[in-house]
Amino acid sequence: MAQSDVFSKVKDDLALGHTHMATQRLRTFLALEPTNIAARRLLATVYRQTGNLVEAGRWSFVCDEEPRAEEQAAFIRANPSPYLRLRLLNWPGPLEALPDDAARTRFLALQADAEEAGAPPQWREAPPQTAGRRSLVPCLFTLVSLGVIGALFAIGAYRALSWWLK
After folding, report:
1. Is residue 123 pLDDT above 90, yes or no?
2. How far apart are CA 20 and CA 23, in angstroms?
3. For residue range 22-66, what is the model confidence (pLDDT) as tens digits?
4. Angle 53-60/69-78 helices, nearest 10 degrees?
């Protein structure tokens, strides 16, 4: 869907007070075009209107020359790891695509902080191996399901046979 169509539908959603639908449209659009600054600004505005300072700070981080301090503080408080904040920004484009020098400086500073901090331990380590151990839950579920299906089949067969013999 074209940007103008998405923005038009978002405008209509906001006029009707459907902020959740507006955010869903914008986030879906941004999943396809993550470097669209206008969509990021609009999404930050919608979150600002709903009072979600964390998400407003997230989406305004790379698109506003001077993002609001309270929003940035809320974003940092909610996501203390610079590595996580960098991942949440989801900026795949080149730095030249950022709207101004202030946004580039902020993004580069966050990248440097993330490299210094490194990935959180739970993201660096491989999940523990459970070789040889299998859970009984899937087996029990399968057995119970087969039992229920068998019982339903038997009831159906009995009903069909009794109807046929009448």
Report:
1. no
2. 5
3. 999 999 999 999 999 999 999 999 999 999 999 999 999 988 778
4. 100
Q: Is residue 95 situated within a structural domain?
A: yes
Residues 39 and 112 in one domain: yes
Q: Cα 31–91–60 angle (5° rounding)?
A: 90
Asked if 57 and 74 touch (Cβ cutoff 8 Å), the reply is yes
Using the predicted structure, report yes or no on whether residue 128 has a pLDDT greater than 70. Answer: no
User: In this structure, what token pair is assigned to residue 26?
Assistant: 């914008």
State how far the Cα of 15 lies from the Cα of 137, in Å rounded to an integer.
49
In a domain, 153, yes or no: yes
Assess whether 97 and 156 both reside in one domain. Answer: no
Distance CA 27, CA 52 (A): 15
Tens digit of each residue's pLDDT (9 = 90 or more) over 76-122: 999 999 999 999 998 998 888 898 889 999 999 999 998 888 777 66
The CA-atom distances, in angstroms, between 30 and each of 8, 63, 103, 146, 147 are 15, 13, 18, 44, 47
Is the residue at 130 inside a domain? no
Tens-digit pLDDT profile for residues 76-86: 999 999 999 99
